[in-house]
Amino acid sequence: MLITYREALNQAMRDEMQRDERVFLIGEEVGYYQGAFKVSKGFVETFGPQRVLDTPITEAGFTGLAIGAAMAGLRPIVELMTFNFGILALDQIVNNAAKIRYMSGGQLSIPIVIRGPGSAAHQLAAQHSQSLEAWFCHVPGLKVIAPATPHDAKGLLKSAVRDDNPVIFIEAQLLYGTKGEVEDGEYTIPIGQAEITRPGADVTIVAYSKMQLLAMEAAEVLAQEGIQAEVIDPRTLKPLDSETICTSVRKTGRLVIVEEGWPFAGLGAQIAETVYANTFDYLDAPIVRVTGEEVPMPYARPLEDAAIPDRARVITAVKQVLGTS
Amino acid sequence: MEREDLLILYRHMLLIRRFEEKSAEMYALAKIAGFLHLYIGEEAVAVGAITDLRPDDYVISAYRDHGHCLAKGSDPDKVMAELFGKATGLCRGKGGSMHLVDAPRHFMGGYAIVGGHLPLATGLAFAVKYQKRDQVVLCFFGEGAVPSGQAHEAFNLAALWSLPVIFVCENNRYAMGTPVQHGIALYSDVAETARSYGIAAERVDGMDVLAVRALTHRVVENVRSKPAPFFVEAMTYRFMGHSMADPAHGHYRTKEEVERERSRDPLVVLRQTMLNSRLGTEADFKQLEQEVGEAVAKAVRFADESPFPERPSLYEDVYVE
Predict the structure, then answer these.
(1) Between vectors from CA B199 to CA B194 and to CA B201, what angle results, nearest 5°?
(2) Is residue B318, in this structure, part of any structural domain at all?
(3) How far is A92 from chain B (nearest CA, A)?
(4) Do residue A66 and residue B127 have CB atoms under 8 angstroms apart?
(5) Between β-strands A113-118 and A167-172, what pairing exists: parallel, antiparallel or unpaired?
């Protein structure tokens, strides 16, 4: 069945809410507006306003409320209209959701999913265009997922809802309308499992979320030039499936990491460290990172384009790591 | 109230008082480290409000949380062991003084980011309502939390969705060292903040355990039968410093003020009431003193003799496996 990323998320949440009465959806505009990006279309009509809760614009308040509800045995899904607004809930996510289990010596757990779009869309400027996944990955106690396809979005969101830990689930505005094959009926994808999305022997490209699509496009172009790239989508950023990545690098000897976020202390730096520590002797060239530029996101289209990785930069990076540029 | 009930209230307050005094001693001996915020002077608020609750009602507090935890019925041995950072502590030594949790007793924790646990309290109350149960949630915090954004967000949501949460503001007049009139625009009537969200609110003498008990008894029954938030402003006073790092009076208040407030000591107030009404005798108080003294001594012994957590536990409880 060919459906959009948006529909895949809708199906996953619908399935889980039908399966488990304890699951509810809370956030700004999730009910009668049908979701700011229409992800929860039809939900309030199906499940009623007791389980689909429109909130005031108070991220700390409603995220904290959901964490408190999870402490008492419910399984909330919090929709952040975007992760930029999630910054207002950072105290709740970092100081409460991530730590309550540890601080209580294992007495309490916080089964919660906090989801919404991250990264840039088109010309939304600095406060609406950020990739903050590294912030969340830094915190012990959180799991972080960033799926690229409708298939992964559905399977991983279902797993996230069933997980007993707080899960940060990062979508992308520019992915909502993308289509992909999704199998009918019930399936889940294990958290912490990467996927080799294209096999190849010459170079490994690791890319997640929107950048995964870019990596696949670049690999297609490179193949026409006789370069076989192995593309890997980690899908889960924490816990990272370093085994799949390292196994590939041991085979190819070369690695390019593509991420939309800022380079300094970005997720790619962590992936590179993991690969250096585990496969140093197998590397034929230094790892190359393709990242967003170290600037707040500008509004003007040419400047915005320059700030975000594109296909040409991925191709250039691959040629650099192969020593053919 | 019956004589037996009064003696129980007194015993609860005395246990907290002696427990806290002993904690201060243990801090001086370096048996307890980190931050230690004592509840001495404020006992009537926790005891008056909590001891009348059902066991399945929820209590959640801030970082000055020993009193609330003990009033909810936690084992003093395990509380002291937690302060000592021992494996036998309530939280296996992972939480410490500011993060006591006793989940089976529905004491849902001490939280150390000011204002940050008020949304959690509304969430507990949301879960009660969602599951069509009839528990209530008591949420304790200092007046220093009232102007925080998270408190306002919590007040609004609790009122908007008629959640069964009772916000108990312990107004001890100082947010650490900042007097209330320097921190809150509506300092002369802090409860007005809650009323502005449509939350019913009352002020009570937080040094008078019977007054606290009478108010919360009435409020708990009302909230249980008809869910809606309520705000209690309990006027109280901390006899000790903000934490053990801070002398009893500090630079921000005078010795004379502290001495004056000590004349309203909640233990003295209740004891006098009981003696005057002949519902308690010197012999009763002597006996309670002995019982509580032994309980606290036993808690210290238990904590001291307990082992520290083993190294592997460092990595446990981060995730549910």
Answers:
(1) 75
(2) no
(3) 7
(4) no
(5) parallel
Best probe of the A interface among B130, B137, B310, by most A CBs < 10 A, is: B130
CATH tag for A2-181 (out of 3.30.930.10, 3.30.1490.190, 3.40.50.970, 3.90.180.10): 3.40.50.970
**What gap in Å lies between CA A200 and CA A204, rounded to an integer?**
8
Distance CA B271, CA B267 (A): 6
The answer to whether residue B55 sits within a structural domain is yes
Q: Which domain holds residue B52?
A: 3-302
Question: In this predicted model, what pLDDT tens digit does every residue of A195-243 receive, in sequence order?
Answer: 999 999 999 999 999 999 999 999 999 999 999 999 999 999 999 999 9
- The half-sphere exposure of A33 on its side-chain side, counting CA atoms within 13 A, is 12
Q: Is the bond preceding A239 in cis, omega lying within 30 degrees of 0?
A: yes
**Inter-chain touch B150–A61, beta carbons under 8 Å:** yes
Return the structure tokens found at B21: 């005094």
Q: How many helices (H) and strands (E) does chain B have?
A: 12, 8
Cβ distance of B90 and A105 shorter than 8 Å: yes
CA dihedral A251, A252, A258, A262 (to 10 degrees): 80
Report yes or no for ipTM above 0.85: yes
Q: How far apart are CA B222 and CA A122, in angstroms?
A: 52
pLDDT digits (tens, 9 = 90+) for A101-125: 999 999 999 999 999 999 999 999 9
Q: Please give the C-alpha separations between residue A205 and each of A61, A134, A209, B66, B313, in angstroms, as whole numbers.
A: 40, 19, 13, 53, 37
- What values do phi and psi take at A159, rounded to 5? -65, -40
By DSSP bridging, strand A179-181 and strand A2-4 are antiparallel
| CB-based contact A50 B130, cutoff 8 Å | yes
- Number of folded domains that form chain B: 1
Size of interface A-B (CB pairs under 8 A): 141
- Do A2-181 and A195-322 come out as alike in CATH topology? yes
DSSP category for residue A202: S
B21 closest CA partner among B311, B300, B254: B300
Q: Is A109 on the interface with B (CB under 8 A)?
A: yes
State whether residue A103 sits within 8 Å of chain B by CB. yes
- For residue B316, is it within any domain? no
- Picking from B15, B43, B34, B249, the residue whose alpha carbon sits closest to that of residue B140 is B43
Please give the pLDDT value at position B248: 81
The Cα of B277 is separated from the nearest Cα of chain A by a number of Å equal to: 43
Alpha helices in B145-187 (DSSP H): 149-160, 180-183
B154: in domain = yes
Q: Using a CB-CB distance cutoff of 8 angstroms, which residues of chain A are in contact with residue B89? A: 105
C-alpha Rg value of chain B to the nearest Å? 19
For the domain spanning A195-322, the CATH number is 3.40.50.920
- Pairwise CB contact (< 8 Å): B320 & A165: yes
Alpha carbon distances (Å) from B53 to A286, B72, B271: 64, 8, 23
Q: What is the CATH number of the domain that holds B255?
A: 3.40.50.970
Using one digit for the tens of pLDDT, what is the confidence trace for A7-43? Answer: 999 999 999 999 999 999 999 999 999 999 999 999 9
Domain-wise residue ranges, chain A: 2-181, 195-322
Which whole number is the average pLDDT over B224-237? 98
Query: Catalytic annotation on A133?
Result: no
The whole-angstrom separation of Cα B321 and Cα B223 is 38
Number of Cβ within 10 Å of residue B218's Cβ equals 12
Name the active-site residue from A7, A16, A59, A259.
A59
- A122 carries an active-site annotation: no
